[in-house]
Design brief:
By secondary structure, the chain is α/β, with parallel strands linked by helices. Helices cover 38% and strands 20% of the residues.
C-alpha cells in the first residue's frame, strides 16, 4: 500500500488542505511559510502514533489561528490519511484500517486523527481520538501500527552525530536489518568474542589492568568487606558490535596506491557537510530498502526536509536524478524544498506546489493539474532553474523575450511602490517565444484545485501589420484567458507601444541614436507618431537591436531621475502589472 491522499485541517498555518500524493517520490515545494514543514510534521505525528520512540506531538500552540478573522472559533485539528490498496492480501493485514469507498466495492485504508481542546474549570486540556476505517471509534491494533515505519531527516540534521558509533545509530540500524536471524547474529558475535578472548596478548593486558585495580581497591575498603572486580571484554552482542561500526572515507584512490596498507582515511568530521549528508541519506535509504525487502507488507517511508542544504547545484541535480529512480523501490519519499535547481530536475508529476494567498494555504499536485501530456513533456524539458522559480512566486508574468523581462521591474516601480513586482514576489518568466499554452494551463483552470492559486498575466504582441485583425497566435493566447490568467496585448509590438506612449519617443530616439546614429537619422521627425513608431520598429528590427535597446533603457530609467519621472508606461503593461500584483 501507499499513502495516496492526506487531508489536514486547522494545523498551524493550514486551515484546510488536501494533498494528492504519488506512490514513489513526492516533492513539496513553495515559498517560506507555505505549509511545507506543517505537512511533514502532520505525517510524522500520524505515522509515529503508537510508537515508543515518538519525538513529536500535537500541542495547544499547533491549533490554527485565522489571520483574517480575530473572532473565528478555533477548530479541531484533523489528520486524515488515505492509503491505496495494492494487493488483496493487504486487506487482511490492515483490516483495522479498511474502508469500502463505493458501490463497486473499491477498497482503501484510512487512518484518522482528531485533536480538540476540552475546557474544564478554566483549564484547557488537549484531547484526541484516533480511529481506522469509516467509523469513529474503530480501534487500530498495535500490531497494525507496528507495520508503519518511517525515518525523518530534518532540515538541521547533523549527519556526523547520527552516524557516530553509539547505540541506535543509523549504520547500526542498516546492519541489523541485513542479519535478522537471532542465531546467525549470535554466531557472528561469538566469532568476535573468541578472536579477542583467545589472543594471549589481549588476555595478558586485561589481567594486568585487573590486578592494578584490585590492588588499590583492596587498600580502600573495610577489612572483612573487601571488594574485587572482574574485568572482561564487552559481551559483544551483535547489535553492540554493529552500533560501534564507524564510517570513514579513503584519502587515496586505488589507482595511486601500491599497497592497500598505505591507505589513510578521513573521519566524518573532516568531511564537508554536504558529502556527510549524502553519506547519511545513502545509509538511511539502504536501511529502508532492506526493511521493505524483509517485510514486504510493511508501509515504509522517508521524510526529508530541504535536502539541498549544504549541496551545491550540481550535487542537487545528481541527488534528485537518483531520487527519481526510486519510484518503484517499494517505499514512499516525501521531500520539502525551496530549491529551483531541485524543482527543475524533478519529474513534473512528483511536484506538489504549496502556496499562501491571503492567509490561505492551497495545494496543487501537478499530476492532478489540467496539463495534458504535451504540456508536461514541454515543461519537463524547458523548466530550467530560472523558470522553475514561478512555483515559489506570488504572481507570474509570462513574456515573449528578454526585452520585457529587463524592463518590467523598472516599469512597475515607476507605477508606484504598491505595484513593485519584485517586492510583491512576482516572477517574470521569459518563455523564449510563444509557448504560452504550456505555462498558462497552470493558472487558467475553472477548477480551483487544478491550478496554482496566484495570478498570472500573459504579455504579448498582437502582431497586426496595419488595421487588420490580431494574429492567430495572439488569438490563441487570448483563448487562454480564464481562471486566474489574464492576457495583455500590445498593438503590433512591445517596442511600438513604448514609442507611442506619452513623450517616450524622445528618450527612445536618444538611446537608439547612441547605438545606431545613421539608422536613427532616417526616422522622419515630422511624420505622425504612428509613422515614426513604425519606422523606429523597422530599423530596430533590421539592426537586431531590441535587447540592446531594452538594456540601455533600463539603465537610463534606473539612473536618470528626470527620465524616469517623464516616462509613460503603456496602458497594456499597466493592466498586466496591476492584475498580477494587486488583482486590479
Amino acid at each position: 500500500m501507499y499513502l495516496k491522499k492526506l487531508w489536514v485541517k486547522n494545523f498551524r498555518c493550514i486551515k484546510d488542505v488536501t494533498i494528492d500524493l504519488n506512490e514513489g517520490v513526492n516533492i513539496l515545494i513553495g515559498e517560506n511559510n507555505s505549509g511545507k514543514t506543517a505537512i511533514l510534521d502532520a505525517l510524522r505525528i500520524s505515522l509515529s502514533y503508537g510508537k515508543q520512540w515518538r519525538d513529536i506531538y500535537v500541542s495547544l500552540s499547533d491549533f490554527h489561528i485565522d489571520k483574517n478573522d480575530p473572532n473565528a472559533k478555533i477548530g479541531d485539528i484533523e489528520f486524515h490519511l488515505y492509503f491505496e490498496v495494492q494487493k488483496e492480501e493487504e486487506t487482511g493485514i490492515y483490516n483495522d484500517l479498511l474502508s469500502v469507498v463505493d458501490d463497486k466495492g473499491k477498497k482503501e485504508f484510512q487512518l484518522h486523527f482528531r485533536y480538540f481542546i476540552e475546557e474544564r474549570k478554566g483549564n484547557r486540556r488537549l484531547k484526541y481520538k484516533v480511529w481506522g476505517g469509516d467509523n469513529e471509534g474503530q480501534s487500530v491494533a498495535p500490531e497494525v501500527l507496528d507495520l508503519i515505519y518511517f525515518v525523518h531527516l530534518d532540515a538541521l540534521r547533523d549527519a556526523v552525530q547520527h552516524l557516530r558509533p553509539i547505540r541506535g545509530n543509523r549504520l547500526g540500524e542498516l546492519y541489523a536489518q541485513l542479519v535478522m536471524d537471532d542465531k546467525k547474529q549470535d554466531a557472528l558475535a561469538k566469532k568476535v568474542r573468541s578472536t579477542l578472548g583467545e589472543d594471549k596478548d589481549w588476555t595478558e593486558l586485561i589481567k594486568q589492568g585487573k590486578e592494578k585495580v584490585n590492588e588499590h581497591l583492596n587498600e580502600t575498603t573495610i577489612r572483612g568487606k573487601e571488594q574485587t572486580v572482574e574485568i572482561d571484554f564487552l559481551p559483544f552482542e551483535f547489535r553492540r558490535i554493529v552500533d560501534n561500526l564507524r564510517v570513514q572515507t579513503p584519502v587515496y584512490s586505488d589507482t595511486i596506491l601500491e599497497k592497500k596498507e598505505s591507505q589513510k582515511y578521513f573521519e566524518l568530521h573532516q568531511n564537508g557537510l554536504g558529502y556527510n549528508n549524502l553519506i547519511y541519506v545513502a545509509t538511511v535509504l539502504g536501511d529502508l530498502k532492506r526493511r521493505k525487502e524483509v517485510s514486504g507488507d510493511a508501509y515504509v517511508s522517508l521524510l526529508i526536509e530541504e535536502p539541498e542544504a549544504h549541496l551545491h547545484p550540481q550535487l542537487q541535480k545528481i541527488f534528485f536524478s537518483y531520487l527519481n529512480t526510486l519510484n518503484k523501490i517499494g517505499f514512499q519519499i516525501f521531500v520539502t524544498s525551496h530549491s529551483p535547481t531541485i524543482t527543475a530536475k524533478a519529474a513534473l508529476d512528483s511536484l506538489i506546489v504549496l502556496q499562501e494567498q491571503n492567509g490561505k494555504i492551497t495545494s496543487l499536485s501537478m499530476k492532478k493539474s489540467d496539463l495534458g501530456e504535451p504540456n508536461k513533456t514541454y515543461l519537463g524539458k524547458f523548466l530550467d532553474v530560472t523558470k522553475s522559480q514561478l512555483f515559489f512566486s506570488n504572481g507570474v508574468i509570462l513574456v515573449e523575450g528578454i526585452s520585457e523581462a529587463l524592463l518590467l521591474p523598472v516599469f512597475s516601480r515607476i507605477m508606484g511602490d504598491k505595484y513593485d513586482i519584485e517586492k510583491k514576489g512576482v516572477e517574470i518568466v521569459n518563455v523564449n517565444g510563444v509557448a504560452f499554452e504550456h505555462f498558462g494551463k497552470l493558472f487558467n483552470s475553472d477548477n480551483n484545485s487544478n491550478r496554482l492559486s496566484c495570478r498570472c498575466t500573459i504579455l504579448t504582441d498582437d502582431d497586426r501589420p496595419g488595421n487588420e485583425e490580431i494574429s492567430s497566435r495572439a488569438e490563441k493566447a487570448k483563448e487562454l484567458e480564464k481562471g486566474l490568467l489574464r492576457v495583455s496585448l500590445a498593438e503590433k509590438t512591445f517596442e511600438y507601444e513604448l514609442f507611442k506612449a506619452g513623450s517616450n519617443s524622445k528618450t527612445l530616439l536618444e538611446i537608439f541614436k547612441s547605438m545606431h546614429p545613421i539608422a536613427a537619422k532616417k526616422i522622419n521627425p515630422c511624420a505622425s507618431i504612428e509613422e515614426q513608431a513604425d519606422s523606429f520598429l523597422e530599423k530596430l528590427t533590421a539592426n537586431k537591436a531590441k535587447s540592446e535597446l531594452s538594456h540601455n533603457l533600463a539603465v537610463k530609467l534606473a539612473e536618470d531621475v528626470e527620465a524616469r519621472k517623464n516616462f509613460t508606461v503603456p496602458e497594456y503593461i499597466k493592466a498586466a502589472i496591476k492584475w498580477v500584483s494587486m488583482g486590479e
